[in-house]
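Limitations
The C-alpha cells in this dataset are predictions for the assembled complex, not deposited experimental models. Users should treat interface geometry with appropriate caution, especially where small molecules or nucleic acid strands are included. An illustrative entry is reproduced here so readers can see what is and is not provided.
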Amino acid sequence: MMWLSGGFIFRRGESFYHRLDPRTKLLNSALMFVTTLLARSVFEMALVIGFMVGLSAAATVLKRVARTMAFTGLFSGFIFVVNIVFTRNLDTSLLYAIRFIAIVVSTSLFFITTSPDELEQVMKMFRLPRDVVFAFVTAVRFIPVMMLDTMQIMDAQKSRGLELEKGNLVRRVRNMIPILIPLVVNSVVRSGELAEAMESRAYGAVPRPTSLLVYRARGTDIGAACAAVALFALVSYSFYFVIPVHFP
Amino acid sequence: MGDILEVEGLSFRYPEAPRNAVSGFDLAIPEGEIVVLAGPSGCGKSTLLRTVNGLIPHMYGGEYSGDVRVAGSSVKDSNMRDLAQSVGFLFQNPENQIFMFSVERDVAFGLENLGVPRSDMRARVDEALRLLKIGDLAQRAPHELSDGQKQRVALAGVLAMRPKLVILDEPTSLLDPKTASELVALVARLRRELGTTFVVVEHRLDLLVEVADRLVVMDGGKKVLEGTPRDVLFGEEAEAHGVAVPAITRVQKMLAGKVGVSADRLLAPSELAAAVEGRGA
Amino acid sequence: MIEFMDVTFVHQNGVRALDGVSLRVEAGEVVALVGENGAGKTTLVKHVTGLLKPASGSVLVDGVDTRKASTAQLSRKVGVAFQNPDHQLFSETVEEEMSFALRNFGYSPELVQNRVSWGLELFGLEEYRKSSPLVLSGGEKKRLTLACILAWDPQMVILDEPTVGQDSIQKEKLAGTIQMLMSTGKTIVVVSHDIEFLWPMQPRVVVMKGGKVVGDGPARELMQDRELLDSARVAQPQLVEFYQLLERRPRAPFVHPLDAGRWVEEGIRP
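Predicted assembly:
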C-alpha cells in the first residue's frame, strides 16, 4: 500500500515537468512504456531508464521514483530468478527484470506529476462520458477525506475497548465490522450531500460544460515530446533494422 | 414587488413519512434582507430551505402543495439550471460541496456546468475569489485548507453564480467562534456590497442578531414566530421553541425600561453596560 | 488523575501539534479545554487514552504511563465521547450498541443488561431499546454515545465538542448531564468552542494555542484576560464582557443572566 501511494499518488510540484500539458505527460509516459517493450538490449533499456530518471530529477520527484524503483526491485528480482532458472540466459533475464522496473516507472512518472484535475482533462479528451469522468474525479478527491474518516472511526471504537489485533483470524475479521459499518454509513450520507450540492450548482445543466482550464502546447511541451520521440525512434530503429546480438 | 422570496401555504410531506415536514407555511422576504431561520432540531428548517432552491420537488419526491416563488417565478415550474443561478445554497459541511482539486477549479464548477464561456468564467471566478479574499488560495487542494477556508471556498463557488438569494445552512457549526464571527461579518459585507439576500439557519444567535433584519422561528413544520430579532427575543415564547436567547439579551430583558435601559432594540454587552452606567444607549 | 509532562507530538506532515505541554488534572476536577481549530486540543485528548503516544515527554493516567498500556485498558478509566456520533454507531439496535464496550471490557451478561437498562433510562432512550441507532435524531445520537460511555462507569469523562449541531433544548439536557456527572465526583474534560455553554459550569479553563498551553486557571479569572483570549482566538462570555465594562461591580463576574440583572437593579442604582 505504501509503495502504491508513494509511487502513484499526485503531489503538487512546481517543476517544468509538472507544468507540462497533461497530454504531453501522457504522450511521454506512453512512449516510454512502448519503448521499454521494444528495447532488446540491456544498453537500450539503460538508455530508457536513464532518460526517465533524468526526467524525474527535472520534475523534482527523483526521491519518490527511486523509492518506487527500490520496491519494484523486489518483484523484478523474482522475475530475474524465474527467468534465469528457465532460460539460463543472463542477458535476457536481466532485460526482463529491468523492463519491469521501467514499465512501473513510466506509469508512475505520469501519475505522480499529473493532478486529478489534469487527469480529468485527459479523460475528457478521450471523450469519456461526463458522469464517468466526474465520478473518477470525486473518488480521487475524497480519498484523503475517507482516510480521515477511517482514522476517526478507529479511534472512537478503540476508545470503546475494541482491540483490532486481538484473537484469531475469524475474530480479527469480525473486529472490522465496527469500523466498516460506520464508514459505509458515512459514505452513503456523504454521497447524498454531494448529490444535493451538485444539483445546487447546476451539474448536468448543459450537455457540453465548459472548462476554466485551457491547455496549450508550449515550447517546453514540444521539447519534452521531441526528446521522448527521438528515444522511441532510436530504439524502434534498432528493433527493426539492427539484428539483435544477444536475443535468443 | 420587492419580495425576492414568497412562500405561500407551503406543505410538504416526504414519501412514506407519517406527517408533513413543513405545513401551511407563509413567508415573504424583501430583497436585500438578512433573515435568520431558527427552531429546534427536526422542526422542518432543512426541508423548507430545500424547497427554496428546488431540491424539493425536483430531486426529492413527495406530497407538495402551495407555492414558493423566487424573484417572481415559481420554483416548482422552474428547472434546476435556472434555480441554481438565482438561489445559492451553502450546505452545513463545506467538505461535501468542494468537488475539484484546486480552489479556483471548484469556484468555477457551477459556471462550467452552465457552459459559461471561458473568458467570462475567468473574470467571474477572480471576482468571487476577490470578494472572499481567498485569491492566495486559488491553487490549493481541498485537503490543504482549514475549515474556515473551506467554508469561504464553498461560498465563493456559490457567489460566482451570482445568485440573488443565498441560503446558509448552519454555516458556523464547525467553526471556532472567531472564525464564525468573521464569516458573519463577511455576510454583512456581501449584503452591503452586492445587495444579496441571505437566509441563514443558525443556532448561535448571539453572532447573528446584530446583522439580521428578521428572525423567523419554526416548530413542528410551522412558522411560530416572525419579527425583528428584538421582537422575537423579547417575546415570551422564543425559549419554548428552542431559541437560544443570548445571555446579554436576557439581562437586557430584565432591565428593560429600568435604569435607563432601552427596550427598543437589542443591545450588545458594551451598549448595555453604557446604558446601565447612565452613559446613554 | 491525568498528568502531561513536557509532552511533544509531531504529526507525520511535520506539524508540531503539541509543544512542551505540561498539565495536571486532579480527580474530580471539571476542565474546559478551549482554543481555535488546530490549536492541538484533539491531539491532546488522543494522548490521554493512548490513541497517540508522545514523541517526547510522558502522559500518566492514574499513574500509568500511556506508552505501557493499551487504549482499551486506558479507556476503562477514561471514557472519550468523540464529536461525531456517526463515527461510531454500528449496531442493529440501541441496546446492542450500548453493550458493545461492556462486552469488550469483559462484563458478565447480567451486568451488561443492568448497565444498559440504567443508561437507557438515564438518558431517556428506553423507547428506542430495540430500534436502530441510525434512526435516532442528532441529539438522541449524541445522548446515546454518552450513555455508551457512562455505562462502563469510567472515572474520567472527556467530551469532544458536545454541543456542535445541538439546539438549545438539547444543550440544556447536556448541561444537566454534565451537572449530574459533576455531582458524582467524576473528572470531566470538555473540549468546546461554545464559551456560553461552558461559562455557567465555572470550570477550570485550559487555553491552547499552536500546540502550547497558554493559559490555565479558574474561568472567572481567565475569562477576564482579554489579551490572552484574543491572542488564542477564544471568545469571551457576554456576561464577562458586560461585567468588565461596569465601573462599580461585584468581586467576581456574573455567572447567570439573572445574577447580572439582579445586581444592576439592586446595586448600581437606588
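Some entries come with short summary sentences. For this one: The domain at 29-50+69-218 of chain C is CATH 3.40.50.300 (Rossmann fold).
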